[in-house]
Structures are given as C-alpha cells and as structure tokens.
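Objective 1.3, modelling of assemblies. Example input:
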Amino acid sequence: MEAKDYWPNRQQWKEKNALQMKNTVIAKLVDVSKYYGNGAARVTALDRVNLSLCRGDIVVLVGLSGSGKSTLLHLLGCIDKQDKGNIIIDGIDTSSMSLEQLAPLRLNKIGFVFQSFNLIPVLTAYENVELPLLFKGLEKKAISERVHEVLDEVGLQDRKKHYPREMSGGQQQRVAIARALAGQPSIVLADEPTANLDSKTGEGILDLLLNLNQQKKSTLVISSHDSVVLDRIKSVVHILDGRVSVDTEHSPVQT
Amino acid sequence: MTIIKLINIALRNLFRNSRRTFITVLVSASGFAALAIIAGYMEFTFFGLREMTICKGFTASGGTGHLQVFMQDALQKEERYPLEFGIEVNDKLQSNIESTGNVSFTIPRVEFNGLISNGEKSISFLGMGVDPVKESKLIEYWYALDNMSSKAVRADSSFTQLKNTAPNGVLLGEEMAKALNVKKGSGLMLMSTTVDGAVNVVDVTVAGIVQNTIKSINRYYLVTNIKTAQSLMQTEKVSKIVVILNKTENTDAVRPLLSKKLNGSSAKPLFSVIPWNNLAEYYNSVIDAYRIIFSFSGIIIVVIVFLSCTNTMLMATMERVKEIGTLKAIGISNIWIILMFLFEGFFIGVLSVVAGIALKYIFSWIINNSGFMMPPPPGMTSSYELNIFSAVEFLPWISLLVMVSTTFSGLLTFVKIRKISIVNSLTHV
Ligand SMILES: Nc1ncnc2c1ncn2[C@@H]1O[C@H](COP(=O)(O)OP(=O)(O)O)[C@@H](O)[C@H]1O
Ligand SMILES: [Mg+2]
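Predicted structure (tokens):
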C-alpha cells in the first residue's frame, strides 16, 4: 500500500537529484592567490581568484603566455599549493592538506593532461593507462575492460603494446588523455594539450577531449594561449596577469 | 597486483641504463665475492690453526691432542715435589681410555724442568718427556688432513731423530743450542730434582736442533725421551695423558663420556678431562685478533657496496625526476614510488648475490690452484700455501648483508623523492 505511494516520490526525487547534480559545484576557488619568489623578485602568478566550476562544465582558460593559466590548473589539479585563499574540490577543502595528503584525491577525482604528454617511458600505452587504475585498487578484470574501452575511445586500440618512444606526439597525447579519463575523474584538466603538436593533430586532440567529455559529463578545463579553441567552446574564462574574468554572456561559470 | 606492477617497473628500469646497472652489480658482486673469500680464508686459517694446535702445537708441550687427562689434584693443588700429582700409568688405564668410542690412541707426557749444562755453562730449561713413536703418529695426523696435505712440506720429524738417538737423546731449541754452543751429536748433562727431593744428573746426546713455531720459546725448549725424564726424576708417573680422536669435531661429544668412564659417578672425581681449546692460549688469541681484522674488512666492503649502490640510486632518481613528478601528479603516493626504488635496490642485491657467488668460486678456484705461499703468520717460522675454504655456512649471511645494503640504498631515495616538486618536475627534461 505504502510502496505504491512511494514510487512516484522516488521518481521525483530522482529528477530533482539529476538537476542538482548538474548544478553541483565541483571545484571552487575562493580568493586564491599564488606568488613565486620572494621580496623584490616576487611574482604574483594568481591574484585573488574566485571561480566556481559545476559538474559537466566545459571551460577554456584563455590568456597570454605567462598570464597564470598553468598556475591555475596546477592549483585546481591539487599538484601545487596556493599561498592564499581556499580551494574546495568536490566538497573537500584542500587548503590545509599537503600535496602528499592530496594524492588520493588526485587519483580518484582528477585527470590531468600535460602539455608534454608525460607518459612513463618504460610502460606501454596499455600499461600507462592501466597505472592509475591499479593504484585505485580496481579488480584485474575491471581494469582490463576499462583500459580497452578507453583506448578504443581515443582510437588507439592497435597501439596497446607500443612504448611511448614508438608513438607520434599525437598518439602519445591520446594515451595521456586515455590515462586521464580511465579513472572517470570528476575534473579533467588539460594544460595547453596541443602546444607540442602541429595544428592538425592538435585539432584532433581537442575534438577528442570535447567529444569524450560530452559523453562523460565530467568537468573539463582546457587552457590555451591562442584563440583557436575559442569558437568551439561556449564558456570562456579569460585570464590576464593573474586576474580572472568570465565571459558573462553565456557562461555557467561564476567568479 | 600493484606490487607486482611495481616490481615489474623496477626490473624494467634496471635494464634501462644497463651499463650503469652492470657496473653497480659488478661492484656489489665483487663485494660479495670479497666477503666470501675473506670468510673462506678465515675458515682456512682457523682450521689450519686448530689442527696445528692439536697435532703440532706452538709450545714445547707439543700438540695438545684433542683431550688431555690430568689428575684432578694436579690442576688444583701445588705439588710439593715433581709429579706428586702425576698419573700412575698402567695398561688398564690406557686401554680403558683407548676403548672409548672415537678415540684413536693416547700419548703419555712428562713435564719437567731443571738445568742443562755443557760443563762450562748451565741454562735452565722447560722439558718434555715424550714417546717419540707416538708423537710422530700425532704429527702424521696433520699430514693426513685433506685440506692441508698439498701444502705441508713434509720434513723429517724431529721425533724420528729422537727415536734414533736412543736411549738418552734430546731435542734442543735453536737458541738454546747456540747458547750452549753444541751441535747434533754433542754430549750434555741434564740436572733436575727427583721425586724424593734429591738432585739427579743424566748424560744426554743432542739428537736434533729444532725450530719452534713460536720463536721466543726456542731458548727454553727441550724434549727428551719419556724414559730419560722418568729416570732423571726417578718415577714411573706421567704428567698427563694426551688423547687423540679420529676427528676434531668429536671432541665435545667424547669429553663427558671419557670423564664418566674414568671417574665413574664418584662425587669427588679423580681425573679431569680438558679439551684442546682450553689448552690453546695461542690459538685463542690469534683467533680473536683475526676475527677483529676480518670484521673490519667486512665492514669496509659493506660500506663500499652501500655507497656505490646509493650513488646509482640517487642518479636514477635525478634522471627520472619528470617521471616521478608525473607519478605523483596522477595521485600515486610517495610510498609506492619509494617502494619501486626499494625493489630496484633489492634486485641489484639479487643480481649481485648471483654474480657474487660465481665470482667467489672463480676466484677461490684460481687462488687454490695458484700455489700461492703465504708468509709466516706473526711469531711463526713456516710459510704455508694459501687455500680458500668454501665457507658455505657464511654465504647466506653475506647474501643478507649485501641485499640489505643494496635494498637500503633504494630506500634512501626517499630523501630525494619526497623533495621532488610536481610542478617543477613536469617541465623537467
Ligand atoms: N616556478 C616558477 N618560478 C617563478 N615564477 C614562475 C614559476 N612558474 C610560473 N611563474 C611565473 O608565474 C606567472 C604565471 O605563469 P604560468 O602560470 O606558467 O602562466 P601560463 O601558463 O599562462 O603561461 C608567470 O609570470 C611566470 O613567469
Ligand atoms: Mg603554461
């Protein structure tokens, strides 16, 4: 009797939840500043940045070289520490945690794609992708399925046994993307992922990142110093001398 | 799973810079081989010294044999006259001892002292009355040893000379012969107190001049036939009975059996049975000194292995800064990364042990077949051929030592790994 009443409620709850999910803030920067050097030589790389990223957001971070894009991504990716302000990732305030303490968070919630690919040279494409999953403690079978799946998605099914040195830059970056996505992170960060590639290959990589993200609904932040990416993405965060401003027109991103 | 992967990565990294790995393994393997050879040399030295103590001895008292039987009183009380607490030897006592399991034979000995004179000059001596035939038999034991046989230059035993100069021959130490200005065949006089306290004199002939292994006693050393000594002191007693076993390893087992057999279950035992190592002061002091020297060289070698391996490991971390940073960036904790280097150190250890065992056997084979003669040890007069024993029971310990030092050098990389900044390493080439 009661169960009957229960079902519609449940449906409602589900819908509500999905909506909430979409607007869930996944990463939040509050008055974050980052400096390099001391005294007179001090450089302000980020200056009181406020930024919120929601689940599923696709954001491009645009700014000139030296404007602070990498610094911002490093802080979002929890591979560097801010000097001031708070960073909250998926509800966890990371401010008081050391980089070593943040390792599990990086492993489980963040996928990083580096400018220079950063694959482990002694490991094959398959093993590079497999590595984070192993450390997440997944089962052997689940890992194997996932690695095959994600290598398929980046179109490298036939390069599984190749070592990084046996692959082109574009292929290496695909492996890196596969590695970043394998663990199904909530945030994928790509710091100028196309900078070391020719423009055609670079476009392919961008396509891949965007398409994959469309399916996965994870938050994606790509940085770029040219505007090639601009016309393909709606949310744009501009960065200039460490100050962040958001293209207000359409962005779900709030400063 | 994760561990297996780490091991796998560690192994691949080892072969990545295979030349450096090869050199590191070579250094550690040489360290292993050096330790093993030192252990083998130590075993050889200890064995040689032990058997020499038992069969030949370093003092005028000759070889210690494996066990010596004394009257209990001789060890505890002061004698009022010579051989007051000597042993009354008879066939029954001798056969009683010799019928004990693992006992080969016995040798009676008389210890005495007095003056030796050439008519113009008298010198005091420490003398030993022996049965030359049985003493020769003890020396034959030494020659019969497998490990020693190749090297000993078989000299005509001085006891044979003593036997041939019956009835009253004496063997003199070199220095004493010089002091008395005598040579083989010269006549001398021995003077000593009898058991009754009177002074007695015996005429003797120099049967041979001998070099003692310990130079300093050459001045006092004197050996006569046991009969000569007994007639000088006018007694039938002996100071002790030396017991020779079939094997040195049986000493500890035979000792209580023999003691029980001689004393029964009497509360106040008549006889005391002393093992050779309690009678071998020289052996014990040399062993102690050698142990210290060997331990020192061991420590130095281990330190060299450790430093060489640590150097390799730190170089490896420097070369792989970017990878280490990447691993950290994707969320792998330092502990795993350190573990990976620890495995690398461990495998260097494994390779070193395997290569070290091979090197050890190659080098000891070469040494053992080279016929290399060692100079006489301190205080001794004869050189001997170098022989490296296999020292198998030391190998597990040496392996452990090498493995621990290489593994620990892998562990030491944590100093560097912890410091590597993720952000700086990403741009590292
Ligand atoms: N490790 C560092 N040491 C000193 N200054 C740095 C360091 N990293 C970045 N900077 C400075 O911080 C500013 C922002 O750099 P970065 O975030 O790398 O910019 P972008 O990625 O947009 O080119 C620049 O002025 C740069 O010179
Ligand atoms: Mg940058």
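The pocket of adenosine-5'-diphosphate (ligand 1) is lined by residues A 36-37, 43, 45, 63, 65-71 (CB under 6 Å).
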